[in-house]
Structures are given as structure tokens and as C-alpha cells.
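Notes from the 1:1 (GR / supervisor)

We went over the backlog. Supervisor wanted to see one worked example end to end before approving the batch request, so GR pasted a single chain during the call. The sequence is below; no edits were made to it. Supervisor asked that the structure be written out right there so they could see what the output format looks like.
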Amino acid sequence: MDAESIFKYAQKRSVTLYVCSYSFAIAYHYMQKKKKVPHHFALIALEKLFQKVKCIPVDGAIIQQAMKSGFGDYEDAIQYCCALKIPGCEMIITRDTKDFTLSSVPVVTPQMFLHYNKD
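Structure output shown during the call:
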């Protein structure tokens, strides 16, 4: 699994991974509705994720910035605007790169990240 490999790489190399706060709600919804993961186990999985990343809050300023970003996909605009809040953010890792054409931050797929960051 790509995510697991990225977490292992980050731990080994002392790389900090960031996640938008609203991503936890999206992940919970996905586990509940698509994967039928029971509530208790979904919360355990989210807690494990929370321990491995830094959480970037989605506040009113980010919401407004995303609306004005020109991005065709609003959720991706929020991700991008959160990335801009991280000093020295080197890249955004996402499975859906097509909507990041306006990004000033490099955008890569998990596979690309792992390919170029082999141990």
C-alpha cells in the first residue's frame, strides 16, 4: 500500500507529513460508507493517522482563499491552500493530480513520490 510506504519513508527519514483537518472527516466517511468499518475501528484508524502527521486546520481564511483560487475542484483547492500555510512545503502528494494545474507547489502521485524516494 502506497500510504504505508510513505509513512515508513517519512519515519525513517524524519520527514514531516501534513494533512488538512477536514481530511479526517473524509477518511471517516469513506471508511464508514464505502468500507463498512465499524465506528470504533474507524476512530482507532484515524487516531493512528493523527499520530503520524501534523494536522493543518481548515479555517475561514483557507475557505475563502480556496474559493478565490481558480481551482476547478474545491476540495483540491482547500488542500492546496493548506499546503501554502506550511513554510517550506516541498510537494503535495495526491492520487488526483489533474486539478492542481494552478499549483505553485509541485504535485506528485504516491507512486511518483515512492519511485523518486527509494531507499
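Supervisor's comment: The CA atoms of residues 7 and 52 lie 7 Å apart.
Batch request approved.
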